[in-house]
Amino acid sequence: MAVLNNKKSRVSDQVNTSSTADIAFLLLIFFLVTTTFPKDKGLAVVLPEPGEEAEVSQRNILHLIVMPSGIVDVKRGESQQVQQMRPREIEGLWRQEVSQNENLIAAVKTHPDASYKFMMDVLDALHSANAERISLQVLEN
Amino acid sequence: MAMKGGGFEKNSQASSEVPTSSLADIAFLLLIFFMVTTVFQADRDRPIEWPEAEAAEKIDEKQKNILNLWMEGDGTVFINDQPYPMEDVSTVVAPLYADSERALVISIRGDRDVPYLYMDLLQKELVEAGVVRVVFAAQLEQSMQRERR
User: Fold this and answer.
1) Cβ contacts of residue A98 below 8 Å, gap of 6+?
2) Which CATH code for domain B52-147?
3) What's residue A108's pLDDT?
4) Distance, CA of A95 to CA of A18 (rounded, Å)
5) Tens digit of pLDDT for each residue in B26-61?
6) Surface of B (104-133) touching A: CB under 8 A
7) Which of A7, A74, B50, B105 would you label with B56, given CA atoms 20 to 30 Å apart?
8) Do A43 and B28 touch (CB under 8 A)?
9) Where residue A82 sits, what CATH number does that domain have?
10) Which candidate from A47, A112, A127 shows the least CB-CB separation from B126?
11) Going by C-beta distance under 8 Å and a sequence separation of 6 or more, which residues neighbour residue B35?
12) Is B95 helix (H, G, I), strand (E, B) or coil?
């Protein structure tokens, strides 16, 4: 039978495209799953309303004076006694102080020439100690 | 010559399979659609050295209600890619704050070495604009790093 020699080849001459869809869907799902929108992180504070000023008894204030060197001068209320501390020691101090006086307010006074990061270190320590009443000021002479 | 089977067993011309050749097009279309419609934040990042904080928390607010306020090391303030003099900040922020129905959160992205004087002026401007919710943006500090310092 000579017809046999003319039989078409069984092998297809086209590239198999049936799996392209699967690849595309796989890519689609991969990107959908792995895309994360970077959420900003930071330390939240609530600023006072304009003109809002509250009189607070000196007894309830813990002054934290941030110096340009990064050292923090701690003063309790009216007392003139100054205790020098490093920012990382503030967390323990706050926990200790607030257990004695629940109404305590942290007044963070930063020297105008002190780097922002030193204020952040103190604020970070206060946040770590779950302090809620924080006042941010610049040190005035 | 008689036809095999009398012509009744001839194969149907219609394919018995669902045509899948357009599936790829659909998938790519979806892929391109999502790629095009995904919007990232509007303003570009400024070159700042981030401060670090251990207690930094994610800002719990929609992206559209967060306004980034950049402060570079020399005290220059950038809002939406534009530099502004310090005294103009409240006039720029106040209308944006009103538009957001007082839901706007200001994310202060300050350089870690900026003198605090500028930060204080900035806060005073924000108070003047009536802004209440402010976040000092920081990178999360790992406790390992902290111990090494």
Assistant:
1) A104, A129, A131
2) 3.30.420.270
3) 92
4) 66
5) 888 988 998 888 776 667 888 889 898 888 888 888
6) 107-108, 110-117, 119-120, 123, 126-128, 130-133
7) A74
8) no
9) 3.30.420.270
10) A47
11) A31
12) helix
